Task: structure prediction
Amino acid sequence: MRDYIIKDIGLAEAGEQRIEWSRRHMPVLQKIREQFEKERPLEGINVVACLHVTVETANLIHTLKAGGAGIALTASNPLSTQDDVAAALASEGIKVFAIRGENEEQYYECIEEALKIKPHVTLDDGADTIALIHSKHQELIGDIKGGCEETTTGVIRLRAMAADGALKYPVIAVNDAETKMMFDNRYGTGQSTVHGIMNATNILFAGKTIVVAGYGWCGRGIASRSRGFGGNVVIVEVEPRKALEAVMDGFRVMPMTEAAKIGDLFITVTGDISVIRKEHFQVMKDQAIVCNSGHFNVEIDIPALTELSSQVNQIKNDVQEYVLKDNRRIYLLAEGRLVNLASAFGHPPEVMDMSFANQALAVRYINEKGKSLENQVYRVPVEIDNRVAKLKLGAMGIEIETLTEEQDRYLHSWTLGT
Amino acid sequence: MRDYIIKDIGLAEAGEQRIEWSRRHMPVLQKIREQFEKERPLEGINVVACLHVTVETANLIHTLKAGGAGIALTASNPLSTQDDVAAALASEGIKVFAIRGENEEQYYECIEEALKIKPHVTLDDGADTIALIHSKHQELIGDIKGGCEETTTGVIRLRAMAADGALKYPVIAVNDAETKMMFDNRYGTGQSTVHGIMNATNILFAGKTIVVAGYGWCGRGIASRSRGFGGNVVIVEVEPRKALEAVMDGFRVMPMTEAAKIGDLFITVTGDISVIRKEHFQVMKDQAIVCNSGHFNVEIDIPALTELSSQVNQIKNDVQEYVLKDNRRIYLLAEGRLVNLASAFGHPPEVMDMSFANQALAVRYINEKGKSLENQVYRVPVEIDNRVAKLKLGAMGIEIETLTEEQDRYLHSWTLGT
Amino acid sequence: MRDYIIKDIGLAEAGEQRIEWSRRHMPVLQKIREQFEKERPLEGINVVACLHVTVETANLIHTLKAGGAGIALTASNPLSTQDDVAAALASEGIKVFAIRGENEEQYYECIEEALKIKPHVTLDDGADTIALIHSKHQELIGDIKGGCEETTTGVIRLRAMAADGALKYPVIAVNDAETKMMFDNRYGTGQSTVHGIMNATNILFAGKTIVVAGYGWCGRGIASRSRGFGGNVVIVEVEPRKALEAVMDGFRVMPMTEAAKIGDLFITVTGDISVIRKEHFQVMKDQAIVCNSGHFNVEIDIPALTELSSQVNQIKNDVQEYVLKDNRRIYLLAEGRLVNLASAFGHPPEVMDMSFANQALAVRYINEKGKSLENQVYRVPVEIDNRVAKLKLGAMGIEIETLTEEQDRYLHSWTLGT
Amino acid sequence: MRDYIIKDIGLAEAGEQRIEWSRRHMPVLQKIREQFEKERPLEGINVVACLHVTVETANLIHTLKAGGAGIALTASNPLSTQDDVAAALASEGIKVFAIRGENEEQYYECIEEALKIKPHVTLDDGADTIALIHSKHQELIGDIKGGCEETTTGVIRLRAMAADGALKYPVIAVNDAETKMMFDNRYGTGQSTVHGIMNATNILFAGKTIVVAGYGWCGRGIASRSRGFGGNVVIVEVEPRKALEAVMDGFRVMPMTEAAKIGDLFITVTGDISVIRKEHFQVMKDQAIVCNSGHFNVEIDIPALTELSSQVNQIKNDVQEYVLKDNRRIYLLAEGRLVNLASAFGHPPEVMDMSFANQALAVRYINEKGKSLENQVYRVPVEIDNRVAKLKLGAMGIEIETLTEEQDRYLHSWTLGT
Result:
């Protein structure tokens, strides 16, 4: 097993600085790290972490290491690695296999290399490690106590596997923790997606018609932040209940075939494939901008766009101009990969603080309970969720109301009437 | 059994006009009514409905009657009855027992009278009928197939009963349907509470410090609408996860002891007792305004306020001035009862349309399946929820996106990777 | 001269209660009243006030009276009079000529009666008194020192008069004071218009397409509050700069011919005539709701609507149903008069506090300086504006930043560079 | 006179790409450029432009050049120069004197070099050229027809000069054009300031207490965008009227001494000096973040901060950590210079499009009318303002309402009454 596959170990110092900066904005994870240092609950456990290699992830890795775990870190997306962070971690002796801009072959080589650590726990952001283990490395399954999955897209995949009886070890859907999903997916994705688009384009949001595909937690966040910057938001959604909520929140709702005609900026965040496709490109306005904040780069049908185009120009960093045969121009950001990670820094540390606090506690939970669990997708235990929320409020210096005895009794009684 | 106990049958025409007006804004319920007229699924069934007697409720009653049910309607709150609506329904031959401003004794007499219909199904908004049947009219239980409960407070009571093994027939928590809770509780309570306060006081919301106790769906709605009118909102909440969400939504969060000192206007909507009490009144600013939008008038500790006061003046309709011994004045709206029903018209018909569509379909479900259910609190079946959402979007003329075959397949597959 | 023309003197007590309630929310005006009581700056002066006869106006009248003025009050709109307020003022001995629902003939009779007081100062809300004096009572002009005008529509009329050389005495455009226009027109009209519509219809704003015609201060307020309640707002505006601002604020902007096809609710607030007319009614959706918050009931072309209709039904209080010949129904609120005054209570006292503080100080200013002014429309002197703002902040208990000596010097220097 | 003083001519291609990208988002300026190419209205005129050297400025320079002007460009801020843009312009033969990070001596050397072109018109963003000409280069004044000033801070300085009789040629306050001030200052500064802070820190705005000093157009924009991202905004303001507006907009308002205790993030944008100073640093929370978006880096008293500190660490790019003697840490962004230009790209091109369209047309106006103007500060002629607004709406494809003849007549008449 190699020590690391990274871009340049010389970037370590810059990485350390940035990791330290984010550490200061992740107080919950630090509290857990301090506890882990004392209790060493992960002693003797090997963890493969296939996550976005960012400053916030570095703090999760430090926490797991403080708990006694051996770790191999690999990227969960070829474009999201921060090379200075990879260097910083490698220079501390952590096994890191991630280079920003690696191609698909290299991407899987890195995961393969990481698996040589022989994991007891797998951490995923998109389920790629689990999928690879189940398809090509079944020999590892016997030692694995369980896994954690960080993102909606991965949870969808794993639920499909479990439904097919194909899942061979238990997985905690960290994504579904309330202190993860409602905060990281909404406030984190919302802010960082707008940030990524600004970095790539510097366009003014005010006055633009902004089409958001998907009104889950991520979509709600993006819609709210886009409106918060003066955009006029249109929602495209397939579920009636969510579509109705978008209407009541004051947004226009319509199918993509209609939205495609009026949008200045399109953002996909559905977890599904080909959300923007040939029939939509064909009716877009000249100079429409298209990007994605969903996990995989499949939400925009880039092959279809390429086929419609007479030429493709790299017009600036992270902006490709597709010149259609009728001379309309469509701008694609970050090659359709997660624009918040490719063009900005991903989620702010304050939300990753909660998400990764859930991760760290979930790893401990798997280590302690994994062998007693079924090969299913589990929710994060509610006590973990509550503990994270309380730690966060404490770290922010916010005191909340407490129930009096009378109030607690009232909530549990049923004899008192009108 | 009497035909009706109402204020004045002469108000019928005014009531009919207003019922017709709301009917035009309840298209989903009308669709169901048309179907019920054809299929008569409630033939032979008697229903006791203990609900706020409003124009929207009248449309639910019409729908149930169209389905073949016999109905006795009684009020779920002594202050929320619209006397013209009671008159209109009575003049159509429906048994109605409700007078605005009835005292507590009359309130229970009305429920007693309604129970004489010998119900097969009970509809509640606050669980008063169920509580009365379980405590004083167990003889009716044998014929009852099940009940429906409309509001959070009632569901809390019923869950407590079920947990104690005290619930003797199954109940559908209509409140918990997504198309009820997320819409009626949020958008309905939000708008109508602000409306009620404006009617009672005509105060300007802009620039006021507005303290909202409770950040459930109702509290979120009130906070959002108060901010939408320029208020500076402070949230008081006991659950860490909800408190954290309020912080991230940009509100200040603090215990009531702190909030009490700075609020210009206080709104309780927690489902709990004594949320604003002696220790809070003692530190409020002169001319603070206090009101409630939770189901029962127990959230504000009015006896404690009275005890602190040297006099109480009815300063105008729905506004009582409590002059404290130190001469500070505290204004209590609508005697601490639901301000949105007491001082305005309750939820707008567009949201009651969905809530009562769930009710109507839940009554049918109980009639068909009740005897096969346990004596537990059940959620509304998801098909009912989806059907209501789809009907609503259709009625609003809104078309949503549909999955392509490829997209549907992708969502259920797990072999496709990065 | 008669003592009063009002609906019913028996309503006085109810009016007094409500006037007292609003007085408590008008602290700036009270400060001025206390000063006027001491200094009696209006001794010997007669004032004709042609204003909406509301609780807030009553407090202005009390302030002017405290200053020593003789007063005759008449309504500035046939539908906006609060009869209990008229009664309360009459019972105090103030000359009041106003009945809610008076017809046009009575309306002008009332103004005629009021003019018998032989005014030295005229107060208008819509310039009707000034117009009448200039057209039919030039004999009064000799004694008049000047006038005040409260609303945008009136200022437009008066500027047109002044431009034609037709204005025969100076007028202060109280409307244009920053502490009036930016607050009363925006926050006051915004909130009270939504309030009026809710009272008339109880419709849910969330999810509605709401067309606001006019993006001046009033229009901005209505748009902001409608969005704050979940509406999807479309702006119709004729000035490019304002239209562009609406776009940047995240609203859709289009001509009325387009907006007419998609609106659920239409609100006019332009100060112009026939903003919604035949060609617009012809393309509206069934059950569209149409109302006005501009000063005169000319913004909606009601004769054109009547002509298109086969019948008109008073469907409920303040709602008329126009059944068009093709069976579409259009609902007109409050006969096209100011919906915030006709269906709610007009602006909240907190904003009228500032507007009327400007009025009171402007009357004093005219009394002291009127004869030295030209026959032009003047802005409120900036010292009055500043004084009102400071008094208001003080009354709200808000402390603001103050410049240090160094900062003050810096702002007036120009030699300091980069 | 040298050809250029820039960082690296090799950066030209990257600069050209980015200039072209912004050009596509500046349609109004392009329309004017096309007209200038035909009419050559600036033939024979030399212009010194002391502006932020950004992609948007490059498009202004191209427009002026198309009009026939000779141009020397220099930076208006030592940290805002985009070196690739300077290179691109230099490689086209335009005289450019600007290097990002130049010290104060170099800064003034660059302006001196630019003045060698012997200008007929000066363009400023902060009035530095005008100040230098008036203090050290009075010999140039004879040939100068006039100047343009782009920013609030500069206009304040120039008004002070004019009031002292010290201004020796007329200046157009381009800043005060409605299509500049209300758009660029509000939407541009609002978005780009948040963008700069995100780039420097990646902090989450949601849940933070954000103190904005100054509630002019820039401050309003920053407050609105910070709230739009979930921040809880506190306003510090010295003018009562603006402070009151902030209150009514739902913000808390207080003096800096109070705000300093509770802020997580501070943003100054007042145009004044020492807005955050010793007494404020002394009470700030540990890890407070301080930055500036006002023109000069004097709003934060950095010398005072330095004096209070035991060490200063460059913690990452654009973030300096000041460790106070009591161990609290205060983070200063971008050395207190304009954070939107230092850490992001300045205003988006869509708003600079309008600002620079005003600039280009103002230069033409000065050339044609300058010698007939007094040595005063003038507003942009309203026709220019209107023309810019119309061109912008046209470019965005937005059609607005037009007055009918009847409506136009009504607005100018005064005989029509109630």
Notes: DSSP finds 17 helices and 16 strands in chain B. The mean pLDDT of chain B is 95. The interface with chain C takes residues 17-18, 20-22, 24-25, 187-188, 191, 195, 198-199, 201-207, 225, 227-230, 287, 315-316, 319, 344-345, 348-351, 396 of chain B (CB under 8 Å). The longest helix of chain B spans residues 178-201.
